[in-house]
Fold:
Amino acid sequence: NAGVTQTPKFRILKIGQSMTLQCAQDMNHNYMYWYRQDPGMGLKLIYYSVGAGITDKGEVPNGYNVSRSTTEDFPLRLELAAPSQTSVYFCASRISGQGASGYTFGSGTRLTVV
Amino acid sequence: GNSVTQMEGPVTLSEEAFLTINCTYTATGYPSLFWYVQYPGEGLQLLLKATKADDKGSNKGFEATYRKETTSFHLEKGSVQVSDSAVYFCALSEAKTSYDKVIFGPGTSLSVIP
Structure:
């Protein structure tokens, strides 16, 4: 199993540019999440999805969009990049339902907006 | 709302020293508790978990006990190694009907020196 795969690993964007961060999982998890991690801070939830076709906002959704057309894929879209979006982005997935199961994380995408 | 508080780092220890990283939480109901570890340049990995009061989670020599009376989930290891150098995140999971929200603490950086 590959687990959760994120691409790219690194990216530098100019202010105002757009990009899509890719996330794919092969574990048939129906819950998927996007987090951002800023230095010295915990993870902040951007968006989540409980299944194909169903997405919802987390704590810090402004400036981002998501879609979930398949169980496997959960891309994160940045439309107009801003320096405040410089961060490390993690995608995660988990088994549905109860809180007892933990997450599987991808290895992250380090994004710098200049 | 629910929250997780961790001791501030960074923590620097000599090899074979005893490790304690404090974690306390605020939650309604009965959350599940987790410790995640993030090695340099990697995503978070589940280290251990506990799902009910007095449960002890353990893995790779690390242990943590779910203490409901003190709302704590302190991480301990009897003898740390250089390879344990990483950032450690305490987290709690709230089982909800819409999604299983996970709240992460800010992380504690550990450096182990030979």
The mean pLDDT of chain B is 91. The radius of gyration of chain B is 14 Å. Chain B touches chain A at residues 4, 31-32, 34, 36, 41-46, 49, 51, 89, 93-95, 98-107 (CB under 8 Å). The longest strand of chain B covers residues 86-94.
